[in-house]
Amino acid sequence: MAAPVMDPQYLKEIEKARRDLRALISSNQCAPIMLRLAWHDAGTYDAKTKTGGPNGSIRHGDELQHAANSGLKKAVDLCEQVKERHPQITYADLYQLAGVVAVEVTGGPTIDFVPGRKDSMASPEEGRLPDANQGAKHLRDIFYRMGLSDKDIVALSGGHTLGRAHPERSGFKGAWTKEPLKFDNSYYKELLNNESDPELLKLRTDKALVEDPKFKRYVELYAKDEDAFFRDYAASHKKLSELGFISPPSKLSLKVALVFVIAIVAILSHYEGHFSWNELSSQFQKRFNLTDLASKFQKRM
Amino acid sequence: MAFPVVDTEYLKEIDKARRDLRALIALKNCSPIMLRLAWHDAGTYDVSTKTGGPNGSIRNEEEFTHGANSGLKIAIDFCEEVKAKHPKITYADLYQLAGVVAVEVTGGPTIDFVPGRKDSNICPREGRLPDAKRGAPHLRDIFYRMGLSDKDIVALSGGHTLGRAHPERSGFDGPWTNEPLKFDNSYFLELLKGESEGLLKLPTDKALLDDPEFRKYVELYAKDEDAFFRDYAESHKKLSELGFTPTSARSKVMVKDSTVLAQGAVGVAVAAAVVILSYFYEVRKRMK
After folding, report:
1. Which CDD domains does its entry note (chain B) (predicted)?
2. Confidence (pTM)
């Protein structure tokens, strides 16, 4: 599918969709499942083959039925309400925008959102998302494959500050923190707390973050400094939401690029060795009346 | 009470309070009552005596027990949770910030918020807020006293897109629109539609239709939601700043202007570079 054009109309629709998402997510209190939808659409990325990633493919039957995506149909259906009102915007952008808004309305950091992702019908094979029963090595396999780092792994795991696991979905049960609809650093505090409420959930992959010394450094930082967590989370979330996505250039940057090309040609025309460069540069000068300008300049001097 | 010092520390606390308010309001679905709290703290302003206005005075028992403020203790208590985490910020700023966030999380426009209001314990007399049973002349008396206009009256009435009236509070009952937790222009659409099963229209709402000046705005906002959002944001900001002169114009408009300026400067610099380079080219050519 073609890249959506970065015209002002599209940007306006994105802003309207953002507002609709705020209302939808607040009133339905579905921030956690919307965040998970955005993460599961993006988290299939393979940096080597450049497949998967945030491209809306998750809405298709086969991918939606992957075990890891159990329960996500609810989020896909909620997003459909917004898509109906703003059909222009791609599903890829919509799902990532939903993730950004989910973090915002639960009190989390503002995450920079750049629109322009294309939709894709191609679903990646099952198994690209992390398995909650595994450990640190598995986490690195999965996230390094996406092109992310240790810091990203720990910061993004902080997303468990929201929501809960469901027996009928993942098989696990319960929330990670006492306020599953508040985005803060309590996930890390609970991880480090040996006397944490036994009702609170700690997956094997959560515990791996304190067992591995490199991961643990970040856990300790985020537990004691919520500002640092918010800052790193915003950066990692943005990275994740843009895996494999290069934003289309705006008209202004195209103009600037064009002027730079002309400038480089003008510089190269200093070197009068090759005839064709001369031809080219004098043609450029004739076209843009630079000789006139230059001689006018000289007359003034 | 003194004006708060709006330094970097204060601004940071405001941002944190803003995030806490988003979480609180989304969690409790209490945006309507938070908006009402902000409006009732601000709406007591008298432009000729410079009394009342957004100064946190509503938190005093003397004021929150006014008939018009029935039920608002709930919102005051919610805000207290946020104040406890950010004691530095004034109640006046907190209540207005809550109003701004309430509009935001329900899908409304972004309203510019400038902090720095001071708190006051001086409570205005009862009777400064509008009486729902009255009509257009009363609305003008009340709002012109604040220093607001006809356009402000209609735009701000659009706040009824959120929430409902309660028999045990105002005596009236029900929401004005079918989605009382969604901020949009349906209040105006419903007004023009006429009587609807289960939806509320106060005498003051109907007055917006009967008065020709008000009606012009109702019709505009019913057909153009963008115009409503634009005017609402402006009127809400005005209301939230009655009697308050922001010293720091920390508005997003300034940030936008500077990025446009920067981009323009880059374009000019590159064009100048090209002209200068061509000049030197010509000079060298002549020298050879």
Report:
1. ascorbate_peroxidase
2. 0.85
